[in-house]
Amino acid sequence: MKKILLVIQREYLARIRKKSFWILTVLVPILLAALYVIPIYLSIHSKERTNIIVVDETILFGKFRTDDEVRYTHLKDIDEAKAQLRNSDEYAAIVYIPRTETRIPSDAYLYYYAHSPNVVAINNIEAQLERILKNNIMLEVYQISKDDYKMINDAMIHLHAKDLETGRDDFLEVKIALAVVLAVLIYIIISIFGSQVMRGVIEEKNNRIVEVIVSSLHPFQLMMGKIIGIATVGLTQFILWIILLITTIGIVNIANPDMLTIATASDNSIDLPLITQGLLAIDFSVILPTFLLFFILGYLLYAALFAAVGSTTDTDSQQFVLPITIPLILSIILSPLIVASPSGAVAQWLSMIPFTSPVAMMLRLPFGVPLSQVWLSAAILLISFVLFTWMAARIYRIGILMYGKKITLKEIWKWIIMNEKKS
Asked: What confidence tens digit (pLDDT) does each residue in 264-304 have?
C-alpha cells in the first residue's frame, strides 16, 4: 500500500506542477463563462432590423406590424416592389399575398433577390401571417367581439404534475436539463482523465522509465497508483473549475447586472423562477452522493481499461480505444430515449450494464430511481471494476515491457489467461 501511495503522490505532484494543468484549469471556466455571456451579449447588442416589402392584394392590407426584428413597408403594386428590391440594398425580400376569390387568402409568396432573408425574419413573417389570418377569421368572418377574441387568444392552462406522497411539482423540463448535464459531465470526465491515464502509460513506456520503476514495485501497484493519482488530479481540477466558473459568471453579472434581465425578457423560453423552484424541488442529498459514487467507480473501471490499452502500444491506440468508448457513446446517443422513459426497460438495462451505467444512471437519477436499483447498479459496477482491473493488470504487467511490436487481440487474451508464474 505504501508503494501505491508513493506512485499516487508522484502522479499528482508531477501533473499539478505542469504549466498546462494550470493553463487548462483557468481557460476552461473562462471558455464556459464565455459560452454563457457571449450569446446574451450578442442577443442584446447585435440585433439588426430587416426591411421587408409587403404587397397585399387582399383585405389584410396594412396589418403587418413593425417590431424590433423586422420593419414592414406596404406597397400596392408588385412590379414596383420588385423594382425596389432589385435596385436597392435597403430591402431583403417581398411578401406577396395575391388576390383571392374568397375572404380568406390561402397562399403567400416570399420573393428575394441574390440572398435569402435570415431565419429570424422568415419566422417573424410566418408568425405575422398566422396572427393576421386568425384575427381576420375571428373578427371579420365570424364577427367575434374584440373582448371575446382577446379572452380566447389569451386562454392558457398549466398542467402541474405532482408527486402523490410529497405533493411536489414535477418540473419535468428542469429534470431533463439536470439529467443531461450530469450525464455529459460523467462522459467528459471519464473520457478526458481516462485518456490521460493511457497517455501517461504510453509516455513512460516510450521513455523506458517504466523499466526502472517496475524493478522496485509490482506492475499492478504502478497501474493502481497511476489510476488513483490521475483521479485525484481530475477531482482537484474539477473542483477548481466549479469555483472559477461560478466566480467568473458572478463577476460578469456584477459588472453588468442588467445583462441577464434583458436577455431573459427577450427570450420567453427562459423562466428563472421556474428553474429555481425546479432545482429546489430536487433532492440533491441523494443525487450528489450518487453522482460521486458512479463517477468514481466509472472512472476507475475505464481508467483500468485505458491503462491496459496504453500498455499494449507505443503510438497508435485507436484500434483498442474505440471498442472501449463505444458503450459510453451509445449511452449518450440513447439519452433522449432514456430521458423520455427513465423507468422503461431500455433505461433500466443500460443502467445495470457496467460500461453504460455511469451515464445511464445519471440520466435517470433526477426523475427518481428506486434505491434498490441504484445499489444493484453500483454493486455490479464495483464487481466489474474489480474483475476488469484484474484483467487489465494481467495485460499491463506484460504489455508495459514490450516495444516495437504490434499486439493482436489473440495475444492479449493469452496474457489474460496466462499463469502469472509463467509470465
From this structure: 444 444 444 555 566 666 767 788 889 889 988 998 889 88
| Euclidean distance between CA atoms 192 and 26, whole angstroms | 16
Measured CA to CA, the distance from residue 97 to residue 416 in angstroms comes to: 75
Cell triple for residue 1? 500500500
**282, 142: one domain:** no
Q: Taking a C-beta distance cutoff of 8 angstroms, is the pair 93, 112 a contact?
A: yes
Please tell me the predicted confidence (pLDDT) of residue 256: 63
Instruction: Note whether 229 and 333 are same-domain residues.
Output: yes
Q: List own/partner pairs for 96-101 with CB under 8 A and 24 or more apart.
A: 96/55, 97/54, 97/55, 97/56, 97/57, 97/58, 97/60, 98/57, 98/58, 99/57, 99/58, 100/58
137-175 residue pLDDT tens: 777 667 787 788 778 777 777 766 666 666 666 677 778
Domain endpoint, select from 99, 124, 154:
154
**Are 371 and 320 in a shared domain?**
yes
Q: Which domain holds residue 70?
A: 48-154
Give the angle subtended at the CA of 405 by the CAs of 403 and 406, to the nearest 5°: 135
Q: Alpha-carbon distance 112 to 261, whole Å?
A: 36
User: How many angstroms separate the CA atoms of 96 and 205, rounded?
Assistant: 71
The edge-to-edge listing of strands for the beta sheet with 109-111 is 70-75, 50-56, 93-97, 109-111
For residue 76, the domain's CATH number is: 3.40.190.10
| Cell, residue 299 | 472512472
Contacts of 226 by beta carbon, 8 Å cutoff, 6+ apart = 7, 11, 197, 200, 201, 307
Residues 141 and 249 in one domain: no
| Cell numbers given for 183 | 450525464
The angle formed by the CA atoms of residues 258, 261 and 262, to the nearest 5 degrees, is 80
- 3-class state of residue 73 by DSSP: strand
Q: How far is residue 343's CA from residue 361's CA, in Å, rounded to a whole number?
A: 11
- For residues 59 and 140, give the distance between their C-alpha atoms in angstroms, rounded to a whole number: 10
pTM: 0.66
Domain boundary among 154, 183, 216: 154
